[in-house]
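Q: I'm writing up a methods section and want to include an example of the input and output format. Could you take the sequence below and give the corresponding predicted structure tokens, formatted cleanly so I can copy it straight into the document?
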Amino acid sequence: MLRRIYLDHSATTPVRPEVVQAISEYMLEKYGNASSVHSFGREAREGTDEGRERLARLIGASPSDIIFTSGGTESDNLAVKGLAEAYASKGKHIITSQIEHHALLHTCEYLEKHGARVTYLPVDQYGSVDPEDVRKAIAPDTILVSIMMANNEIGTIQDVAEIGRICQKSGVLFHSDAVQALGQLPIDVRKLGIDLMSVSSHKIYGPKGIGALYIRKGIRIASQAHGGHHERGKRAGTENVPGIVGFGLAAELARVEFDERVKHYSLVRDRLMDGIMARIPEVRLNGHRTKRLPNNCNISVLYVEGESMLLNLDMKGIAASSGSACTSGSLDPSHVLMACGLKHEEAHGSLRMTVGTQTTTEDIDYVVAELPPIVERLRAMSPLYSEREKETGKACTQTR
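A: Here is the clean output for your methods example:
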């Protein structure tokens, strides 16, 4: 029987059994509408209230600051569009980075078509935004800075605390996409100076289809979904009660198990990273070596296409990705890796492997054993590698 190893936890995670059980209870027994006044509705309302409280505890917020959405993408849209509309009289300038998730970048592109001015800050070779660049980019008409807490492809962690201080001092609102950071980094929105923050359930062993936007008290935001007065008038529509309950429990488990999880992630991730770098020549580590998410390993294997590696790994029962799951159908190289200065062929040879709570050292050893021969076979068929071998041979002959 083929061994199956899942190394794509940045794309999504399996739902915890305890979370499945909690969701089932609110689908089969406590299935009322949370806006209804009868006992079924009150049961549902209790579930959403508890879910809101649990998520708030994980990020150091007040429950009243949590607005539930359908996921990280909607949260990014609500944050940026909603704030741009609410503060249009103050200005139309937004600052973000070149390596944000497309949920943020495409939203900014949409706003540009409707009169907004957007500054896309560069990053260094590790994918880090210089906080000083943020300070220099702030203008009198700047209404928002949006910088993700940790990158979804290369795992690089940004200095959001310093960016938050700069924004507070300048009187500019600060939004951060923390979809990948939730449950992997300690987050206290007050200490970090974050005004709005996007998070998602299915990255922390909760269900898909549910996310949230933290909005600091006092910030105006224009609803992007019109209908009822749900979520304090900021997001109309009947609440996804089972999803909220599941997200809340997943958040509580992430808070209680935080130290244990991070320790495990780091252990198996480093084993994977070090094993690959030791056994395969001409491999580049993408992202910062230490300032990265504990579960993330992103590499570029020179002279090999990422898609070919993925297909060969899949035949061995190993699931990985070549970048963001949201862009896996695109033939274009990763915009994140290109912003970090990689060449097209280097970006096309990228491989993202992200570990999880169930990843074992035996899993890692299997991957480290199977990947080198795959790379060797693919390089043997690569015209770029053949040309490189010829050039190397010529150099050796000339040296002699």
